[in-house]
């Protein structure tokens, strides 16, 4: 499973559910007594669950460094998603966000979620192949699409899982109740915050692309093609910084997430 830094999780999940929580309605959060957030990371979803649930919300993650941040908001327990340190039926809802896309066997994780749930299991998973970008820098959308496709070809897990999580739920023996879509939008516009400036600098230096180089080369991308892409990427980053200096840079990114909810067999 891939590991993520606290800064990465904060940057990519910042603002999720602030605009609407309608896609979470099938979880019936207002009636939950004990909820487990698996792969909670720094606790972005845990905080939302805690705000909506009258009962207890517990965060669980294998990365104890990330749990230090999540623990500021909810009780946390270190544990592996495939071997949860809880007894059967310990919770009435087990949920994860952007976790299954990083696992080689999502079905195995869902089975484990069902073991510790007496009622519902839910997964909030993106389709990273359907990300839409609109930018004031003409080349940014094309280059991000090219880099994304190269990354998807090389990554070892299904990071486009999205709505297809329904199949994994069914294979794990759950009754799929509903799937709802939530589009997480991230916007950069003036005035620019520190995070936006850091992203622009990483584009101009090619650092962000360099982080994914090994994965991208696992697919069909050649070293020569990667070098050409990185050169264009850095040029694009310089254009971003130039527009930022002129306060004309604007970027909108929409990532489709799918909330899939299933009921464990014992609760049918």
From TrEMBL:
Entries under CDD domains matching the protein: AdoMet_MTases
Example of a GO biological process term: methylation
Superkingdom of origin: Archaea
InterPro entries: Methyltransf_11 (IPR013216), SAM-dependent_MTases_sf (IPR029063)
Domain spans labelled Methyltransferase type: 36-116
UniProt feature coiled coil, ranges: none
PANTHER family found in the cross-reference section: 2-METHOXY-6-POLYPRENYL-1,4-BENZOQUINOL METHYLASE, MITOCHONDRIAL, METHYLTRANSFERASE
Protein name: Methyltransferase type 11
Source organism (scientific name): Natronococcus amylolyticus DSM 10524
């Amino acid at each position: 499973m891939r590991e993520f830094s606290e800064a990465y999780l904060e940057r990519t999940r910042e603002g999720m559910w602030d605009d609407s929580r309608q896609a979470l309605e099938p979880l019936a959060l207002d009636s939950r007594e004990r909820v487990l957030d698996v792969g909670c990371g720094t606790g972005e979803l845990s905080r939302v669950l805690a705000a909506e649930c009258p009962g207890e919300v517990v965060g669980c993650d294998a990365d104890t460094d990330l749990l230090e941040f999540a623990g500021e908001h909810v009780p946390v327990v270190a544990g592996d998603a495939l071997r949860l340190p809880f007894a059967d039926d310990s919770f009435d809802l087990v949920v994860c966000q952007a976790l299954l896309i990083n696992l080689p066997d999502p079905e195995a994780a869902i089975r484990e979620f069902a073991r510790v749930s007496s009622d519902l299991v839910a997964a909030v998973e993106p389709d990273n192949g359907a990300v839409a970008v609109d930018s004031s820098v003409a080349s940014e959308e094309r280059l991000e699409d090219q880099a994304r496709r190269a990354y998807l070809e090389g990554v070892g897990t299904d990071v486009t899982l999205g709505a297809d999580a329904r199949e994994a739920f069914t294979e794990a023996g759950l009754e799929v109740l509903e799937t709802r879509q939530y589009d997480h939008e991230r916007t950069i516009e003036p005035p620019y915050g520190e995070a936006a400036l850091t992203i622009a600098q990483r584009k101009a230096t090619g650092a962000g692309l360099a982080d994914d180089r090994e994965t991208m080369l696992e697919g069909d991308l050649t070293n020569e093609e990667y070098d050409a892409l990185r050169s264009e990427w850095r040029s694009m980053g310089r254009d971003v910084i130039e527009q930022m200096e002129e306060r004309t840079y604007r970027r909108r990114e929409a990532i489709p997430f799918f909330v899939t909810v299933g009921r464990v067999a014992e609760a049918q």
